[in-house]
Amino acid sequence: MKKNNRRGFLQTFGTGIAGTLALPNLAIGTNQPAEIVDFTNHEIADSEAFWELVKTQFILAPELRYFNNASLGASPLYVQRHTQACREILDGFPSKYMWGGWKEEKEETRQLVADLLKVSNEEIALTHNTTEGMNLIARSFDLQPGDEVILADHEHTSGRVCWEVFQESKGVKLVRPTLPILPKTVEEVVDVYRKAITPKTKIISMCHIVNTNGMILPVKEVSKMAHEKGILVAVDGAQSAGMFELDLHDLGCDFYTASAHKWLFAPKGIGVFYAKEESQHHLKPLIVCRGYEDTSIRRLENYNTRNLPELLGLGAAVEFINQIGIKKIHQRSYELKNYFRTKIEENPAFNLKTPAHDDLSAAIQVVEVIGQDVQDIKKRLSEEYNIDCRPMSTFGLNALRISLSIYMTKADVDYLVEALVALSE
Prior knowledge:
Blueprint: H1 3-11, E1 21-22, E2 35-36, H2 48-55, E3 65-66, H3 77-92, H4 94-98, H5 103-117, E4 124-127, H6 130-140, E5 148-151, H7 157-166, E6 173-175, H8 186-196, E7 201-207, H9 219-227, E8 232-236, H10 248-251, E9 255-259, E10 271-275, H11 308-324, H12 326-344, E11 350-352, E12 364-369, H13 374-385, E13 387-388, E14 390-392, E15 399-403, H14 410-424
Parallel strand pairs: 3-13, 5-6, 5-7, 7-8, 8-9
Antiparallel strand pairs: 1-2, 4-10, 9-10, 11-12, 12-15, 14-15
Helix pairs in contact: 3-11, 5-11, 6-7, 12-14, 13-14
């Protein structure tokens, strides 16, 4: 799609990409009218004030400090406005826009996602979430009893159960190596997968970032090693898409699936599925209906009726990311990580349980308040400080998972640290 077509599409909503747009009073709990800000070439782009402005685009509940983006992200005003406009257009002429009226706009959304991930639009399907993507992969393969699939012990439930139901139940062996909680080097993690591979290994299914303690797994290194042995690599990218810059061709995996409702800030119920062109022949759609003969990657998203306003909202979400710049978001993810760690790493009341090296973690950090139960600390943070984060109890973590998204400022981190210090005493 040409850029001017997308601009024309957005202008049908009475907006357009450029400019600052006045909206109704959407700011919950405030008396200030909410405005959409265009961040392209913004004059304060290199200051903390820039990120304060970004924060104004996410209308959270009054006084809430939301450090739980790794569970579920918020959509900025830009995305909310365009998604709502699509809903109104759809309800104005349902049959037109559900079946064909937005064909070009759907394809432009696909292209926006493909460009963000540096792949071809013919390698991107627009699905519902990571769970669907992992199910699609696990169900596609006609593996035989005795074949092996490697799933490390920190895989998300949705990335594990599908292999148990569709493959382990027929005699395929699921190999579950143990990952170190605090590896010092990338090679230490690669070695876990190297030792798990046998001549019977057919597929490695792995997270890019584990949801337990925020550890980044070495997908590129594992993919290279696996492909040398004829093994396919599937990646659960729920926690990495949008957090930092990605080049899926460089990453080297065969399949990558992500929920767009986390770090991509898209409407809920939209997902992204990547399949390397030469690996697509392995995949079978979960759902078939009219048009099942399609041989392109679109066969994997052929649902007939679906929630198109949310799909097109994904396009708006990528536009929002592009306005800020994925490189800038990448840098901010690591800036906030290092700012947070510097504030608490010398305090004996805390134990960081996320690897320190930037190759091994980014904007998800997990911290234990020593001597206190994580459920109690989580409850007190919520009730006394209006801070939301995720308690993690598995793998002996007993720790709070802190998500450092772009709508959190250094002042918010300071507030969090002050609360943690107070509760640790």
